[in-house]
Protein 1
Amino acid sequence: MLTVVTFLPLLACAVLALLPRAVRVPDRVCSWVWIATAAADLALVVAVWVRFDPHGGLQYEQRARWMPGAGVSYHVGVDGLSLPLIAMVCVLFLAAAVHMLRETRRVRALACLFLFLQTVGVGLFVALDLILFFVFFDLSIVGMYVVIAGWGHGERARAAALKFFLYTFVGSLALLLGFIGLYLAADPHTFDLVELTRSNPLAGQGLYAGLVLLAVGAGLAVKTPTVPLHTWLPPAHTEAPAAGSAILAGVLLKMGTYGFVRIAMPLLAGSWRQYAPVFVVVGVVSVVYGALVALAQTDLKRMIAYTSVNHMGYVVLAIGAAGSLAGSDAQARSLAVTGAVVQMVSHGLLTGALFLLTGVLYDRGGTYALDAYSGLAAHTPRFAAATGVAAFASLGIPGFSGFVAEFQIFTGSLASQAAATGIALLGILLSAALFLRALRSLFLGPPRLPAGIPLTGLADLRTREAAATYPLLALALVIGVLPRFLLDVVEPAGRSVTELVAR
């Protein structure tokens, strides 16, 4: 089942890409093939979720020989850490497909790229072999580079895409170096995550284990991204198309944070405990710095990009605090890790919605500059309402997924990192200030659009734009009001990770 879920989008991509050039496929047909494939993949994930046993550990496992001489296999499976993220990936790609329904620029190529990226996203979260994980990790860089460079805004898009590629590719090389370090420490040599977790080959290895954690942590930190390895993110988001930004924030950033929870914490447990305070500091700095810099932005898309640094900082704080708590409060450790996973899901839904909404703004006014707009609420009430809901949900008000995630993160982190958690709370206040400033600038005051664009006939959210955005906000609301269906899946897996860290 997981192999079908993973490679169904790639199969559709191959069908579209390999059609002879003489066969002129209408753009509309390509778009609907893309939407139908994304919807079918989501339906399969729902079927997996319905049959999933939260207390059953890894499920739907499949192994196949790949490079046996090098200890590499095709090994996939799903548990409570990966299943919610796989579901989020499929929801976001379906939303992106619907949002791009009226795209006219090289639609067939764009559909192929996004279908390819969907396979890469799902594949990384089901991978149980380090090399398989790395392959999908690297392919995501290639796919997103082409999306930004080929469909971004103007000439600067190529420079932003190149910066994104170079930064994240160097990070992936560091990650590969760490994986090789784990492979060499194992006896027998293997890249299999399950075998490495069971054997714990770097237990008591001291400096060597610390260097492996440094390599793995650096590679994942670039992708997350954390301060100071975040500078590729704002230009990549600003120049990418709206759907590309939604996937970049909602899916690719989670590859870094998921890697910390799936690989760094359980496979490098001793070093993680030793260096947990470093991750706590990095998390807090990312929270505060990301919010402060976002507050200073005059470009809506750059502002939202910096809030991603802020939100991913909460995840790093939580997993660092879970390492600091090893051997003491098991409930607090589990709460912190569960909150980190819920934050990944929440951020994907809400920031994905915000980026799709920035695409609506750019479509109407041709710029993301906040000072170019004013008083839009009177002319675009649905757009104003959706943006307001997404903004308030993103800053963590009760009733939405962000509150559930941040409450768990702060409660779990307070037990060992009271001072750091207190500082991180400033991030919520700063987020409130920056979103309120943006909402006031866009929607209140006398009506104004960029020069040369008449207010008469200004279009509100169109059907496809609402169909792409509303379900993301609705899911965030469901998680905020009825989180048990998600927490029941995540909590057992979160406890397993914290038990491995404490061993």
Protein 2
Amino acid sequence: MELMYQSTRGGEKNVTASLAILKGLAKDGGLFMPTRIPMLDISMKQLAGKTYQETAYEVMKLFFTDFTEDELKNCINKAYDSKFDTEEIAPLTKADGMYFLELYHGSTIAFKDMALSILPHLMTTAAKKNHVKNEIVILTATSGDTGKAALAGFADVDGTRIIVFYPKGGVSRIQELQMVTQTGDNTSVVAIHGNFDDAQTGVKEIFNDKAFAQRLEEKGFQLSSANSINIGRLVPQIVYYVYAYAKLLENQEIEDGEKINVTVPTGNFGNILAAYFAKQMGVPIGKLICASNDNKVLYDFFTTGTYDKNREFILTNSPSMDILISSNLERLIYLSAGCNSDVNKELMEELSKDGRYTVTEEMSKNMKDFCGGYATEAENAAVIRKLFKDTGYVIDTHTGVAAAVYQEYKKETGDTQKTVIASTASPYKFSRSVMEAISSDDSLEHLDEFEIVDRLHEISGMDIPQAVEEIRSAAVRYNMECDKDQMKETVARILDC
């Protein structure tokens, strides 16, 4: 039976999966959601022996029902190949009683590779299915990782162009170098004078500008998104939670049917929402622990029922989580309101107008699977340091937030269920902050980024990823900057329209 999609704000209904992927964002500014979350039609025991690619097919076929088996398997096989440095694609590592789901083995050493390796293939297949003649322009805001992963995925893909906006001074130096040295004739990178929320808001405004869309149409372009607002990004993220449970079962770490918890370092809410979808599909997941850094808007929301972005924006050493407007939370709000698009639309309008909204008691009850926690920079560093000292295992600063929040949760609740922590980036991506946590060397502040990388390699023995080695001497191709209110004009200039 074909699964259709609709906008969380009610403006679009009966949209096919391929068209939802192509559009990215609904015309009314809402996000596409399936009319129901399908149940897995295979047992966890049967999944236990399957490869990542086979697991991906079992999950994605249920959501992308207008893709043929050949089309979908072709997209999966092109995505999850030698670009990843391990055949497992997403290995599980046990350290200090925690299970770290390593999502950073792709070509840009961050979890965004898991979905952005397949999105270009889904999108070009979808374009053919829908007889699209226009060039597809991928427009994306990034807090650091989405940008590079999207650029790498779409570089030189026929029929596409990609423009990435990132906050100047709001990403790590490694993240910035990965973006500004990107090759590809169809790629563009722009630093905005503002924070990630400014970049994300600017991108959404461009999507909602009908006159600008018409102007692009006349020049043979149409916009789409590689952010996690695109359902083609969200669905592939469900796969690794299904795979993680099956791996725990295969490795006899859990009994069949035993519940596990999942802890996710959270910014835009897509990664933890994917875990919630996995639970709704039948994966035995207990608590979804939403880990925030000092920008704890989500912790406050799950604690009080009020979402309030009216607060200081704090730059931290886990920059991909420095977000005050968590776009994907809208999908959970919509579900918690019983898929009532009117209720959701009203709350999103309140957010736009007043910067805050409060959900009803009933909606809060419908979100009881979630709990929030947050970690300060000192708590984050302490966990990274202790884990390395006790086990020799090194994690990055985002994963550190999740580990710190999980340990606090365990202490407060006494919940001893086995827990998978989404390990979202290679420590080398945030090498300075990681080194500051695990080393007492006072000379670090005088070292450049790559000297720090080499020092981390010496201390940890971890291989330096190819993604880091290749930017040591890569030429900077992009130095374009713009004010946050000049993003539309910048897109027009890049596209010459």
Protein 3
Amino acid sequence: MLLPVIMAGGSGSRLWPLSRTLYPKQFLSLTNNSTMLQETVARLEGLSHQAPFFICNEEHRFIVAEQLRQQQLSHSGIVLEPVGRNTAPAIALAALHATEKGDDPLLLVLAADHVILNQAAFVDAVNAAVPQAKAGKLVTFGIVPHAPETGYGYIRQGQAVSDTAYTVDAFVEKPDAETALQYLDSGEYYWNSGMFLFKASRYLQELEAHRPDILTACQQAMTGAHGDLDFIRLDEAAFSACPDDSVDYAVMEKTQDAVVVPMDANWSDVGSWSALWEVNAKDTQGNATRGDVLMENTTNSYIYSQSKLVATVGVDNLVVVETKDAVLIAHKDKVQDVKGIVNQLKQADRPEYLQHREVYRPWGSHDAIADGERFHVKRLTVKPGEKTATQMHYHRAEHWVVVSGTAKVRNGDKTFLVGENASTYIPIGVAHSIENPGKVPLELIEVRSGSYLGEDDVVRVEDYGVGY
């Protein structure tokens, strides 16, 4: 059976303000109610496969685990990368893990942040590639182009090796508009999808031949790895020393055994707001909307509302995106320049590039409601059976008001229950934690007051749970 390898790393900023460094696009619901990660797993239906193997950044680990739990999706392991080192090392980690017990599965390498609207065509292309991969070829999937796209790399096909596969004649960098049109007209070029199929052993053989330094670093990282709940933690020093390189540069452009299988599946890497507009359903005026949106004389626009009413009048070809802490208004033809805004936020050390106002934790979430000179108000949600870390603060006191559910509170040397419409007070310097012993989510309002309210005023009292 196939072993799907789902690469869920990355922290792209092209879909800011929805996508943030600590909550990037693969964890967002952009085309339906499921997230892109969940959709990637769902499209494996129709293929005979093992439980998928995931690779993600360490700071995203609980998001991945929670999104799999939400849909009761199993996995073969979740590897945590302490630092990003691109796709060649990531796939090496999966191949090493897959072969450590003597197995040699076909690795179906997929990105967690792609949209594929034609699932049947995706399944057909994968099945067509299986014989090539079994024969020792390294298969890449080329997307049949329908437009002279300048935002993708291309693959030029060579000789046919079967009815559905060709040798790879060349990998080509992103072209200008005129060259892209020539590629489209020739019928010999495909968009480079970043999806692959090959035996785990064949990938490792090619990596050893062309980038033994990457293979050695990954072997050392896996040798020093250890389990942590659902996760596989690498040897951080060994993996940090690994060179940064893509699978295209490290292996696919150097091997003599690369083949391309065409895929015409209405694919997109959703690399911009305009691309997201293209893959979403539109009204008769060409508008794609999500959330609480009202429009008057509005055409060809993408409008997204997360928390409040967004109204547009007399606009055309715009992207309008509202989140709880930011609003983006951009011309649809200029959305690639959003990265300039993100760079400005980084330079100013503003939190809006890093995370959303609502922050997710293994135990639930917290959402900032109001700020003042000496107070800060949050809404906390604690999942049934979960508990925050026990901690204390030197500069702030806290008031907790339970809105719904029942809280089991540790306050110093006392532990007691706080029900709905009741409250408790946590003085400065007192150890405390919140637990939800019930069967429904616990909702409470936290009011911080004091001379310093920063998130770094936290002292862990015991190594239990994850604080905020």
Protein 4
Amino acid sequence: MTNPTSTTTPSGRAGRREWTALGVLMLPLLLVSMDVSVLYFAIPAISVDLRPSGTQQLWIFDIYAFVLAGLLMTMGSLGDRIGRRRLLLIGAAAFGTASLIAAYASSAETLIAARALLGIGGATLMPSTMALIRTMFTDPGQRAKAIGMWSGVMTAGIALGSVMSGVLVQYFWWGSIFLVNLPAMALLLVLGPFLLPESRDPAPGRFDWPSVPLSMAAVLPVVYGLKEIPSEGWQVGYVVSITVGLLFAALFVHRQRTTASPMIDPALFRGRGFAPSVVLNLIASFAMMGSAFFTTQYLQSVLDKSALEAALWALLPSVPIGAAAPTATALVQKGVNRAYVVTAGFATGAAGYALLALAGTDSLWLVLVACGVLACGIVVVIAQITDLALSSAPVERAGSASSLMETAAEFGGALGMAVLGSIGTAIYRHDIPGSAPDAARETLGGALAIADRVPGLATAAREAFTSGMQGAAIAGVVLLVGAAGLAAMTLRGVTVREETKEPEKAAV
């Protein structure tokens, strides 16, 4: 099959085919992001049907995110070598197959294996979609609009996943949450070869196989430790896990700097905008996921909403997100310095955290408004720095650049939950009455589970949790104000270059 004919105009602007292809890419991207949260309401039904042990239930939840995070850099580099469209289609086939296996899993072990395969497929889809956007949209203005859409879909997918699972489980069986993936993946497999251009590095060198286990050994222990700390505390095992991961990260970086054909080319970080974009992306994800740790519990446990009711309320802050990234892109295209827009995005996020710090135990609308303001600011940041990172990277390294941004987001999200979650937990344990039972002193959920036996415990625990949320929100304000200053300093004078030629495209 030959490369599909592009409708790109002589001026380098994308035409109808490229925008149609972007629409096709958005569906699998939405589903991959939804899979992060799709099990929230399905796990009770899965527990009744498959009877997993406690450990197996944790792996059903976590294996997807662990495999996804561990393989992002590998898949980004592989796409640069074998072709991003080819890897995308392979990943779509794997994701669809894994979805079918998961839907009809007859044991916990089978479901865990299927979720791991879903993580492998997701690791190919996420950087491939971003890299293909870099390939298809060579005009900076159009590329910024496309990346803004990409960022909005990613954010919306995480919020929508839990709601969709609740609706499907209520009216169908739990396997339906996986079957909804099949039409989108089938559409991608049918239309992708005709709409998507193939592109790859024309001179990639040998694939750096030793870096594959090194990258996984660097990412997985750190992500595991950071994900467990918010609920289990700073136990020695989790600290050791993070330390081991950081040691392997040092070995991974050393290999990338010394080997002749590295998985991640260190030259990527020589572009003025790339390294700051990676760091700022980590901070943005830190802020977004750190707030989600509290607001989801606040809606359910403090305001006493049902899980589905809380998820539906949580959709409201997502409504203004659709306008945030396009508005920021329009400002940049009209000549507003990107550094100012990103700085304003972080400042807006800080304002959202400031509102969250004012919430009491009955502040539904204040919390929703705070989440909406925070999300709008962070989406502005993510859209702008993603565009800057991809524009700063050579087109032949688009897959690697995309995977680094995604890996930074995974680290940032886990770190946000760990750090802000630990701050909130420390304040909760300080504020809960000393006479409260041990279970109540650990978590709000533990307190509510025995609240009917201890007069006044539920009110005290909810107030203590809200105080913890306020403390974490204040920390979020400080972080994002600092990030705003960092963005103003590091992005000043950094511009997006116009493409001087069509990116290298390969026939299949």
